[in-house]
Amino acid sequence: MPIHATIRAPDRPPRENEAVPDIACAPGIAPEHNPGEPRQAPPASRESLRGLDWFIFFLADVQTGFGPFVAVYLTTQKWTQVEIGFVLSIGGVIALIGQMPGGAIVDAARSTRLVAGAAVLTIGCCALGYAAFPIFPIVVSAATLHAMASCVLGPAIAAISLGLVGPLKIGERLGRNARYASLGNGVAAAVMGTCGYFLSSRSVFLVTFLLALPTLYALSRIRSREIDVAQAHGAVVHQATADIKAIRFRDLIRQKPLLIFAGAVLLLQLANAAMLPLMAGVVTTRSADWAPVLIAFCIVVPQAIVAATSPSVGRKAQQWGRRPLLLLGFAALTIRGLLFATVTDPYVLVAVQVFDGVTAAVFSVMIPLIVADVAIGSGRFSLAQGIVGTATGIGAALSTVLAGFVADRFGAPVAFVGLAGVAALGLVMIWTIMPETRRSSDEISARAGG
Fold it and tell me: What's the rounded Cα separation, in Å, for the pair 297 and 54?
């Protein structure tokens, strides 16, 4: 069993600016600790890092059980489309307005693991409620609680990741997170689709409930003592005083890089969210028989690219900086929109989805990474994620409405060109006014030194 307790060597007082050595002591002997000095979490073990990998994998499985499966299941239960739309709308509205409160809850929590565990347990119970009691009050309550729990899970995962590996290694860690989330989504879609086909739509939610159990087990494998609490919240512990300082909300929203990036993410979602649904309609019109298979491939291709390339994106972000990859992501989205507007062969449209994979791989890593860059020293990492998450929700909601209106009035090609134009605007925004947010180890050490 590894020994983590330490005791300070007492042979002489330290000289100025000299680190005091730590020596191992036997378990059960209390280490000496100066209350005026910050406690350092031990380095993240392989067990904790693998636990985080599998927690993200199984959580993606659990979350896949909702979404389109809800509409299918409620339809089999003789619900009207108005009732189904109402339930889905409730979830969407709460997911939008709950982003910042969810981030604030994670920042205020003393144990991020506890918050994540409670959210997973809530989602599992919601799935069980869908399966056991598909009546209006229960389903509405389950949709509400599921949306509220989801608002804290994203910030909690990023906070645990930052607390385990620190700001200098967070890029590659976020890449691993994106890889396991993508793999989890793919596996869950196949498993739940199979269960729904061979068993019943209800079985999807029973499987979702059961998958919450390995999710909680994987979370328990992350050792809480290895999560640096201050680091997880984006705070800086000043060596001289051991104070953990957090800035006020109004000071956070005045940070120019955060506001610029939130605006860029809004444009990203405004351009991206409607592309696949709009393209699905076009494919169905041109090749009705093969539409389900082609649309499935259009979903699988980007997921495969994300799983294969996300860790590399995290490493390159630390080597090259953030801006080059942001430009790449927006450029791929712009090209994809233009190709959707001009390509007529439905099979070639599947190949165009490679560009969606590039954009997804970039932004699945870049969004939490740049928020971490900006929030370092603020103590409001998760709240900053909530601000960007709100921009994400607004952009996605506007995208489907505006693109649908344009497609109905002027045709799908015009709508695709419009979406490409929005992506190009985001590209120009990153090129002209978005600063580079990558921090060096010296900059982070300077902040920690006060």
Answer: 25
Distances (CA, A) of 137 to 134, 143, 153, 344, 410: 9, 10, 25, 46, 41
Q: What is the pLDDT of residue 68?
A: 67
Gyration radius from the chain CA atoms: 23
Cβ neighbourhood burial of 432 (10 Å; 0-12, 13-18, 19+): exposed
What is the spatial distance between Cα 1 and Cα 17, in angstroms, rounded to a whole number?
33
Question: Given this model, what pLDDT does residue 376 score?
Answer: 81
Pair of tokens at residue 370: 């740049």
Q: Map tokens 């089999």 to a residue.
A: 76
The answer to whether 90 and 144 are in contact (CB under 8 A) is: yes
Superfamily of domain covering 46-233: MFS general substrate transporter like domains (1.20.1250.20)
Q: For 277-320, how does the pLDDT look when each residue is reduced to its tens digit (9 = 90+)?
A: 888 777 777 666 666 677 777 778 888 899 899 989 989 998 89
Find, among 130, 125, 353, 114, the residue nearest to 219 by Cα.
Answer: 114
Q: Which residues pair with 245 in a beta bridge?
A: 236
The pLDDT, as a whole number, for residue 41 is 61
Domain boundaries, the chain: 1-33, 46-233, 249-448
C-alpha angle 361/362/367, rounded to 5°?
A: 115
pLDDT at site 253: 77
> Looking up tokens 């109004």, which residue turns up?
250
Q: What gap in Å lies between CA 386 and CA 371, rounded to an integer?
A: 10
What parts of the chain have a pLDDT lower than 50?
1-39, 238-243, 448-450
pLDDT (0 to 100) of residue 75: 81
Of the options 3.40.109.10, 3.30.420.40, 3.40.50.300, 1.20.1250.20, the CATH number for the domain spanning 249-448: 1.20.1250.20
**What's the rounded Cα separation, in Å, for the pair 26 and 34?**
19
Domain 46-233 and domain 249-448 have a common topology: yes
Question: What is the rounded distance in angstroms from the CA atom of residue 430 to the CA atom of residue 426?
Answer: 6
- Distance, C-alpha 210 to centroid of its chain: 23
Residue 445 is predicted with a pLDDT of 54
Q: What are phi and psi of 235, to 5 degrees?
A: -90, 165
User: Number of H helices and number of E strands within the chain?
Assistant: 18, 4
